[in-house]
Amino acid sequence: MAKAAKKELSYSELVAKRNELSKKYMDLRFQMVVGHVDNPMQKRTMRREIATLNTLIRQKEIAGLDK
Predict the structure, then answer these.
(1) Which ranges of the chain does DSSP label H, i.e. alpha helix?
(2) pLDDT above 90 for 7
(3) Which of 9, 16, 34, 48 is the most buried (most CB within 10 A)?
(4) How far apart are CA 16 and CA 2, in angstroms?
(5) Angle between helices 11-34 and 41-63 (to 10 degrees)
(6) Model confidence over 20-52: pLDDT tens digits?
(7) Is the pLDDT of residue 15 over 90?
(8) 18 closest CA partner among 31, 40, 60
(9) What are residue 20's phi and psi, to 5 degrees?
(10) 20-50 core/surface letters (b: 16 or more CB in 10 A; e: else)
(11) Would you call 67 exposed, middle or buried from its count of C-beta atoms within 10 A (0-12, 13-18, 19+)?
């Protein structure tokens, strides 16, 4: 999902997307420990996506759009 498309999401959609990605990230971390990961760079990209979502969520909170 492009950054511009993420900016168009509502606050609740951003939070839901972040929670979903966080769960996937935890699963990926577990798979890396077990040793069944095809693309180790996926961990970095997911972490960065979560950070981007956190930033957008915080911007909406500051703007008062978190209701």
Answers:
(1) 3-7, 11-34, 41-63
(2) no
(3) 9
(4) 17
(5) 160
(6) 999 999 999 998 888 877 888 999 999 999 999
(7) yes
(8) 60
(9) -65, -45
(10) ebeeebeebeeeeeeeeeeeeeeeeebeebb
(11) exposed
